[in-house]
Amino acid sequence: MKLIPTLLLLGLLLPAQAARRIGDAQVRMDANGQPCFTISEREEKRSGTPDFQAITVSEGTRVLWHMAMPPDRTFPVSFSMCIPYGGRVTALPQTPALDLGEGKMYLVQFDARPGKNPLTPLRYQAQFCLDAKRRRVSASCRAP
């Protein structure tokens, strides 16, 4: 009978690890009228700049574009920079970027490498929708 309380006590002594939260990504339009992606300013102030690993844009379960860094390379993602849809670095492994249409809900998700700060999320994401004139992005789609 003493075994059960002992096991319960041992379970309480084990270090508890909380699951890392998903960080907030931000979507904005670049000078060419294409969406580009970064972390939110709030995320940068809260947890610092994560090291980029990969980015995926999808519509439902369909991947529209994916780009990843080689294992030996990375760069810090800050609020002041933006990763353009379709990428511009041809040396990086990526899929061709499919066309984005207006009025459709998309999901951008980018993964970060584990860093020194255990509070830094390993994944950031945001939903976005393009307006009819492709001048801005929105977090929700409205019927025309």
Q: How would you describe the overall organization of this protein?
A:
With 144 residues, the protein is mainly beta. It has a single domain, classed as Immunoglobulin-like (Sandwich). The chain contains two helices and eight strands. About 3% of the residues have low confidence.
Quick recap of the structure?
The protein is 12% helix and 33% strand. The chain is mainly beta and 144 residues long.
Q: Mind sketching the topology for me?
A:
Layout: H1 3-13, E1 23-29, E2 35-39, H2 41-47, E3 51-59, E4 62-68, E5 83-84, E6 106-113, E7 123-130, E8 137-138
Parallel strand pairs: 1-7
Antiparallel strand pairs: 1-2, 2-5, 3-4, 3-6, 6-7, 7-8
